[in-house]
Amino acid sequence: MNAPQIIAPDLDVPDTLARILADKYEEVRERIAATPLSDMERQARNAPKPRDFVTALCHAVGEGRVGLIAEIKRASPSGGLIRDPFEPVALAEAYCAGGATCLSVLTDAPYFQGSPEHLKAARAACDLPILRKDFMVHPWQVFEARAMGADCILLIMAAITDAVAEELEDIARSLDMAVLVEVHERKELDRALGLETRLVGVNNRNLRTLKTDLATAEELVPLIPADRIPVAESGIRTPEDVRRMAAAGSRCILVGEHLMRQADVAKAANDLVHAL
Question: Signal peptide location in the record (predicted)?
């Protein structure tokens, strides 16, 4: 199967993201050559039933808690090596003990030192629904996500065209997976609302400068329709930050680097979960 174009011509892609996508398409080509799409789809459809990502978040918010998607990642382009030693099983157990609602696990290797094995290990260690955090650009990756045990995938609107986003969402829905669609600006939000998913993530990190600013969520979250579930992402470190996001309309948050840098991960998660 031929991989799609590396960068869609109608997307203004920052240099860092362009490099990541170029590497990702090459990776996908190599992995399809090793495991054909039909074989990966068969593995996905034979995988155990997904855990309900959306219901878990709704339940947490309904009980007055913060819907915390706690992230497991070893490194990032902006933060370098974040945690060493890095133990996905211990982290998953700590997040569960700290009251996290869902997990997010990085599987991208070149830029985040992630692996599908990290997701598999985390899922076996707890009963929380898990988001596969990666740069999803091809149907093969969606089937791979389900085969490895992911319950939700991330679609970054800055990285894909509307047509690709719709195709990947359709495949995810056919596998009973949730989709978290991520936006960074108003144009991306408008595009994202054309999808069916209820989960709309607003990333406070500027893709061009890699700096974070909570004002991004404060600007965009109020524009998200009431039938969707906003998720504030990046730059959230303190209970006060959580309250800022809740005041903007997002009681669900995705937090990674801050938690990964804490000695007591369970306590750090608990502090955010009960910030309201």
Answer: none
